[in-house]
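Researcher: Structure prediction, please.
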Amino acid sequence: MSNITAAMVNELRRTTGLGLMECKALLKEAEGQMEKAVTLAKERGLKHAEKRAGRSANAGRVEVSLAPDGHSGAMVELNCETDFVARNDDFKVLAKELAELVLATGGNDVATVLESKLPKQGKTVREALTDLNARTGENVILARVACFKGAGQVDYYIHFDGMKGALIQLTGPAEPTLVKDIAMHVVATPIKPSGVSREDVPSELVAEQKRIFETQIANTMGDKPAAVREKVAGGKLDSWYKETVLLEQEFIKDPAKKVIDVLTAASKSLSVKGFSRFFVGESAEAPAAE
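Model: Predicted structure follows.
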């Protein structure tokens, strides 16, 4: 059997990111052949990744990449199982590379991004996630991606803990600080905006809210005329819109104003073209990387 030296173990650690004892065991199994040991490490990583693919991944971070001209931006949510791994340098680097890749490709679909190649690594996103699974021992998932390109200004806000972020696109003339403030509002507002305007709110969401309000009123005002009940339900729905539609929400930095008031005061031609808000672990159906 070949003599396993400390230098060989350290080289395998640098290559694979695995622990000291695991590298030593792999080298012994490979009879000191470095290439074989690396292959074994990859094979074990794949098997381990498959086993842990179903484990809950509610930790992680949100990362953003902006184009130098400020007209394009991308945001990703990379999930893992613990805050310890989320603070790992390899995890942070991969999150940044993913945001840069999404910005470069304009991808808005996780399945497509998974098959795209990371320029700095020369491997697909799926392969990179599998490698990180093997090195960290945790289920690492690309949960969500978003990208805005075209006319307008794009900016973002990420909370200090790296777990909450928003990407926003405004059209029309706006000071950079205002774009940043609107992005911060999207993150900080207690109720997640369901759309920019009332017209943007998904019809199924509106229908569900109407059903809830009508049921509540039927239970508490069943003896009132139908016209009265309908009017009360309409009032409740109107209040709900004001709480959940971005433009109608109270601006987080000045509750006396609505978001639309802040935009109009800056310029009557200023509008929100789109936004995305990612809170780590909020995505209920995060695609696995296995």
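Model: The CA atoms of residues 30 and 37 lie 5 Å apart.
Researcher: Thanks, that helps.
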